[in-house]
Amino acid sequence: MDLGLRDKIALVSASSRGLGKAVALQLAREGAHVAICARGEEDLARAADEIREATGQRVLTVPADVSAPGAAETLVEATLDTFGQLDVLVVNAGGPPPGTFLDFSPQDWEDVGQLTLMSAVRLCRAAAPVMKEQGRGAILFMTSITVKQPLPNLVFSNSLRLAVTGLMKTLADELAPSGVRVNAILPGWTRTARVNQLLEDRAQRAGTTVQVEAEKVSADIPLGRIGTPEEFATVAAFLVSEAASFVNGVNLLVDGGMYRGAL
Question: pTM, whole model, 2 decimals?
Answer without folding.
Answer: 0.95
